[in-house]
Specification:
This protein is α/β, with parallel strands linked by helices and 318 residues long. It has eleven helices and 13 strands. The strands form four sheets. A seven-stranded parallel beta sheet has the order 3-2-1-4-5-6-11, sandwiched between helices. Helix 5 packs parallel to helix 6, helix 7 crosses helix 9 and helix 9 crosses helix 11. It binds nicotinamide-adenine-dinucleotide.
């Protein structure tokens, strides 16, 4: 087994790479160090992984063909495709860029998988795909009401993957992740952003009234889901990967306050059109088929994240 991880220097990618190398699985990582947040964080994410003889890394762009020529010489057997334009907010500003990377870039990855007879392809999709559906979200629901361009681009990728499997038999598992947080987390996402501002005594901006709910998922549970999906390739299948516990943004803030020992200074601004009121994963299918079982609840996860964040701040002196 040799696993290609696209988006390897990103949040989930670097956590996955660490886990695979720890399990003695060779990896090839790819990332173009896109500047959706501080690129030095991405370089730091992968630095410890590259110390391993099991890890190879190339700075490359999934939107170009050169990368795939290089990759086709690397005896890759499995693919985890995480590279993407991420973040809901920016997708309204740069819709074409999101479609290019998340659909055409994904097409390039799928072409690579087909041409190299890859045994199992795992694609990262999102809870945002559920749009206006009622919670709990389950895989039987139609995903045809995306609330933002990011979600539309991921649904596009999912549909492309289905037709690809139908035409060429490529084994593909789609994982819909629910608000992943934890060590190496994305500075543009609420958990990291609020942690940063609360710990500095600065004001945080909450969109809406704080009652919006999210199924916060600790990153080791997300990477466990990926490992299970890699091991049990199906012809074509889709699974929710979440904690299956929907908690309000206000509850998240209270937990961060408790862990940092500081009161948050909150300003409430208008609810954003791109945001769902609530997300909650029905994970019964992933439990039954993959043996997926999330282990870290929000209380413990925020505690672990806070400990990491303090160390991270010390190391990076910001
Ligand atoms: N973090 C979450 O809560 C969450 C939730 C749902 C889905 N996802 C999906 O999981 C995947 C990983 O997300 P993440 O949170 O680690 O995000 P991330 O932004 O930290 O990681 C994505 C990585 O892809 C890289 N990338 C972007 N465009 C590229 C290109 N053209 N070529 C090569 N690399 C490119 C970026 O540089 C980045 O390091 C994404 O596909 C995302 O849509 C994440």
């Amino acid at each position: 087994m040799k696993v290609l991880i696209t988006g390897c220097a990103g949040f989930i990618g670097s956590n996955l790479a660490k886990q695979l190398v720890k399990n003695n699985v060779p990896i090839v990582g790819v990332d173009n160090f896109f500047g959706n947040y501080d690129v030095s964080l991405k370089r730091k994410n992968i630095a410890p992984i590259l110390e391993s003889k099991l890890a190879e890394f190339i700075e490359g762009d999934i939107n170009g063909q050169k990368l795939f020529e290089w990759l086709s010489k690397k005896s890759i057997t499995h693919v985890v495709h995480l590279a993407a334009r991420t973040g809901v907010r920016d997708s309204s500003k740069y819709p074409g860029e999101y479609l290019k990377t998340n659909i055409i870039g994904s097409l390039n990855v799928l072409n690579f998988a087909r041409d190299n007879k890859i045994k199992s392809v795992v694609l990262a999709s999102t809870s945002s795909a559920y749009g206006k559906n009622k919670t709990p979200f389950n895989e039987e629901q139609k995903v045809s009401t995306p609330l933002n361009i990011y979600a539309a681009s991921k649904i596009g990728m999912e549909n492309l993957a289905h037709s690809f499997h139908h035409l060429y038999g490529t084994p593909i598992t789609i994982l819909r992740f629910f608000t992943v947080y934890g060590p190496g987390g994305r500075p543009d996402m609420a958990v990291y952003k609020f942690a940063d501002l609360i710990s500095k005594g600065k004001q945080i901006e909450v969109y809406g009234d704080g009652k919006a709910k999210r199924d916060f998922t600790y990153v080791s549970d997300a990477t466990d889901g990926i490992l299970l999906a890699l091991e049990k390739p199906k012809g074509f299948d889709t699974f929710n990967i979440g904690n299956s516990d929907s908690r309000s943004v206000s509850e998240l803030i209270m937990l961060l306050e408790k862990n940092f020992g500081k009161k948050a200074k909150i300003i409430y601004s208008g609810k954003r059109k791109e945001d769902a009121e609530a997300t909650l994963a029905d994970i019964s299918k992933a439990r039954a088929t993959l043996g997926f079982s999330p282990k870290v609840g929000l209380e413990e996860g925020v505690k672990l994240f806070t400990a990491w964040f303090r160390q991270h701040r010390k190391n990076n002196a910001f």
